[in-house]
Amino acid sequence: MLFQFGQYKVDVDVEKTKHFYENAETVSEGCSCAECRNFEQAVTILPKSVTGFFDKLGVDMRKVCECYANCTNEDGTLFYGGFFHVSGTMLGGESAWKEENEEISYWHEDETFQVSENFHVSFQEGVFLLEKDFQLPVIQVEFSANIPWVLDEEK
């Protein structure tokens, strides 16, 4: 299925992607740190614009490939980054990750697609940590987001 998200034009096999996520483990099954457990629970209360975006692609957000909390914002939310994989190809657009040199890359939020006020994505052909049995071809959906802390424990 063809999608246009800002500068990004992607062709996603939604059914193959859904099939993978139906059988994938949740992030907390692969990592028990508080930030991963929080991400898994917090994505269920994100705005419909965010959950709907990932639903259209066939992605179960609780089963993120990689997520990490960079810092705690003044409002108490956590600034997360990470990525998901989808079965498909990129037809247009460039990653928001720009290489400064061989060792340093920077995330340029102004080159992302804004899914909501606090959630930005970028697509790229280069993939990392590809899950076993993921259907090729594959593209990576990178994100940066301010996500609330929802666990009953302290950060």
Note down, in words, how this protein is organized.
By secondary structure, the protein is α+β, with helices and mostly antiparallel strands. The chain has one domain. Helices cover 21% and strands 37% of the residues. It has 4 helices and 9 strands, in the order ββααααβββββββ. It has helices spanning 14-23, 27-30, 34-42, 48-57; strands at residues 2-5, 8-12, 66-72, 78-92, 97-99, 105-107, 113-116, 119-124, 138-147. The strands form 2 sheets. Strands 1, 2, 3, 4, 7, 8 and 9 form a 7-stranded antiparallel β-sheet that branches. Strand 1 and strand 2 (8-12) form a beta hairpin. The N and C termini lie far apart (40 Å). 31% of the residues are buried. The model has no long low-confidence stretch (mean pLDDT 96).
Helix and strand arrangement:
Layout: E1 2-5, E2 8-12, H1 14-23, H2 27-30, H3 34-42, H4 48-57, E3 66-72, E4 78-92, E5 97-99, E6 105-107, E7 113-116, E8 119-124, E9 138-147
Antiparallel strand pairs: 1-2, 2-4, 3-4, 4-9, 5-6, 7-8, 8-9
Structural class: alpha+beta
Total helices: the number is 4
Number of domains: 1
End-to-end Cα distance: 40 Å
Question: Mean of residue pLDDT?
Answer: 96
Q: Classify the helix fraction into a percent range.
A: 10-25%
Q: Which consecutive residue ranges, at least 5 long each, have pLDDT under 50?
A: none
Shape: globular
How much of the sequence is in beta strands?
A: 35-45%
Number of strands: 9
Spell out the helices and strands N to C.
EEHHHHEEEEEEE
Major sheet:
7 strands, antiparallel
What is the radius of gyration computed over CA atoms, rounded to a whole number of angstroms? Answer: 15 Å
